[in-house]
Amino acid sequence: MGMYGVFGEHTIDGCPLNNKENRMAVIEGGPLFKQVAESAGVKVLSQYHSGLEHTFLWVLDAKDAQTVETLMIQTGIAKFNAVKIVPVFTFEDVIEKCKMIEGRS
């Protein structure tokens, strides 16, 4: 399993606050997202949104990026959002990698 940052962005017109179809998708599908994710073997670690920026950042734990991609399509998230899936690490992991490069434990 690995951590993935899912960065999403939609247009002002596509924003669920401004678009009835997308709003209904969020109201109806949003509460089911974690359940669908878990059945796909994906754990939702966090979900953050910036309403006025029309962006979001979710952190998921999944076997691979393709699993996350499939989840974004199946749940309809990719229907009105441009989605970027990026492997991520904690800052503590970065510190430990730097120590290893320097030969420190």
Q: Structural class of the secondary structure composition?
A: alpha+beta
> Biggest β-sheet, characterized?
4 strands, antiparallel
Give the CA-CA distance, first to last residue. Answer: 24 Å
Please tell me how large the radius of gyration is.
16 Å
What is the tally of beta strands? 4
Ranges with pLDDT <50 over ≥5 residues? none
Give the SSE order as H and E letters.
EHHEEHHEH
Mean pLDDT: 96
Identify the overall geometry. elongated
Write out the strand line-up for the largest beta sheet, numbering strands in chain order. Answer: 2-3-1-4
Strand content: 25-35%
State the helical fraction: 40-55%
Note the total helix count. Answer: 5
Describe the 3D structure:
The protein is an alpha+beta fold and 105 residues long. The protein is 40% helix and 29% strand. It has five helices and four strands, in the order βααββααβα. The chain has helices spanning 20-29, 33-39, 65-74, 77-80, 91-101; strands at 2-9, 43-50, 55-62, 82-87. The longest helix has 11 residues, at 91-101. The radius of gyration is 16 Å and the shape is elongated. The two termini are 24 Å apart.
Helix and strand layout, with pairings?
Layout: E1 2-9, H1 20-29, H2 33-39, E2 43-50, E3 55-62, H3 65-74, H4 77-80, E4 82-87, H5 91-101
Antiparallel strand pairs: 1-3, 1-4, 2-3
What labels would you give this structure?
105 residues, four-stranded antiparallel sheet, 5 helices, 4 strands, elongated
Provide a compact summary of the structure.
This protein is an alpha+beta fold and 105 residues long. It contains 5 helices and 4 strands.
